[in-house]
Design goal:
The chain is of the alpha+beta class and 119 residues long. It contains three helices and five strands. The strands form two sheets. Strands 3-5-4 form a three-stranded antiparallel β-sheet, with helices on one face. Strands 1-2 form a two-stranded antiparallel sheet. A hairpin with a 4-residue loop joins strand 4 and strand 5.
Length: 119
């Protein structure tokens, strides 16, 4: 992108979409993809969040890779089914780690194969 002063700066698509739909990015915040799909630059999939929170989200996504659970977007009381092809072996441990990282409570039910946000 070329600025009026003649300088150039590369700008990512998700940054341009977020700025157009959500306003200029506040100082110190990153653009975060809610569904963790870096190719999904839809305005409804983008939010501004702190760098530290974005890093936590990335770690959480890596811990739950293979699921389609959007941990941060879950409302209290919301239940989601864990995809059947997901490795359930250590999911209870992952749910505890994600709860601690987010400061929220999630519960995994092995019988029904679901995760519920409880607080």
């Amino acid at each position: 992108m070329k600025f009026t002063d003649g300088t150039y700066k590369s700008v990512t698509v998700h940054s341009m979409v977020a700025a157009a739909w959500h306003g200029e990015r506040p100082l110190g915040l990153d653009v975060h993809h809610i569904d963790h799909d870096k190719t999904n630059n839809a305005a409804c999939n983008l939010v501004y969040m702190s760098r530290s929170r974005n890093v936590i989200e990335s770690k959480i996504e890596a811990m739950s890779r293979g699921t389609i659970i959007a941990w941060c977007a879950m409302a209290v009381g919301q239940t989601v089914a864990v995809p059947q092809d997901y490795k359930l072996k250590r999911l209870a441990d992952r749910v505890r780690a994600i709860s601690k990282a987010l400061g929220r409570q999630f519960e995994y039910c092995a019988m029904s194969g679901t995760v519920t946000r409880t607080a």
